[in-house]
Fold this sequence. Notes:
The chain has helices at residues 11-20, 61-73, 85-97, 117-125, 132-159, 170-183; strands at 4-8, 25-29, 35-36, 44-45, 51-52, 55-56, 76-79, 106-109. With 184 residues, the chain is α/β, with parallel strands linked by helices. A 4-stranded parallel sheet has the order 2-1-7-8, with helices on both faces. Strands 3-6 form a two-stranded antiparallel ribbon. It starts with a strand and ends with a helix.
Amino acid sequence: MARYLVIVESPTKVKTIKKFLGSNYVVMASNGHVRDLPKSQMGVDLEHDFEPKYITIRGKGEILAGLRKEVKKADVIYLATDPDREGEAISWHLYQALNLANSDKKVYRISFNEITKNAVKTSLKKPRDIDMDLVNAQQARRMLDRMVGYRISPLLWAKVKRGLSAGRVQSVACLLYTSDAADD
Length: 184
């Protein structure tokens, strides 16, 4: 009998989804993102096509170890993170962190908008690949936040208050603030 691993984001979904599936399904949670840009540095190589440098998030090593153990036992892996760009990126990061590209396992992306037996079962009948357009949209947003934030936050510390941070959204406000200050 085939063995299936379903990986969701939230541990609160695990028990409910387990009820909908047979005994040959194992359902586990990633508890959100498992990799990110390092906090202590830019994490984006501006000299080499903006290549991101991802690291395992502190505290996620044990979760990944548990997932790797179950991946070895599974015949098919379903990445069932949320149906948005963050969820798509989490699935991609799981794919990378669990080294699924180099495994002989069948790996699919599934998503559902509600946690019902019908929605979960229907998603399993319509598996797909990871949508790299959504992944790239999330990566671009994350990297832009980092690039802008690491350059503008020191200005905020000097002009407003130490410890403040800025990202792509706040940078416009900083620009307006500095423009108004220059006009005075």
